[in-house]
Amino acid sequence: PRAPSMKINIAYPRNGTVKQFDISDDLIRRGNLFDHRLGNEVDGALFGEQFAGYSFKLQGGSDKQGFPMVTGVLAGARVSLLLKRGAVSFNAWRGRNGERRRKSIRGCIVGHDIALLNVVI
Fold it and tell me: How many other C-beta atoms can be found within 10 angstroms of the C-beta atom of residue 70?
């Protein structure tokens, strides 16, 4: 069986390019990436030696079931919130005027169940 891993999408806005890498879980545990929040700057060495010297800003991500991480929700787990139209995971064209729906989203604190992280150089 494959070792558990996390994917990271590294964006370089100057060119508009994005590269995806697989990072092993032991590397992430050793680097102590958990308990960082979205918007924090982290050292690239946390993701491996090939990224040493870079500084990354955590922008977003999703957990193993695909629920998106949302900035401003200070939780390390999945929560169910009332969201208005146009919010993350609630399409703007669905629903009626003023309608709000209870949707599950992931808090902004990086935890063990994150499958994908979006970062910017």
Answer: 20
Cβ-count burial of 50 within 10 angstroms (0-12 exposed, 13-18 middle, 19+ buried)? exposed
Report residue 1's pLDDT band, with 50, 70 and 90 as the boundaries: low
Cα-Cα-Cα-Cα dihedral sign, residues 29, 67, 60, 50: positive
Number of alpha carbons in the 13 Å side-chain half-sphere of residue 96: 1
Sign of the four-CA dihedral 65, 71, 77, 78: negative
- Show the CA angle centred on residue 60, arms to residues 90 and 41, nearest 5°: 150
Model confidence, pTM:
0.83
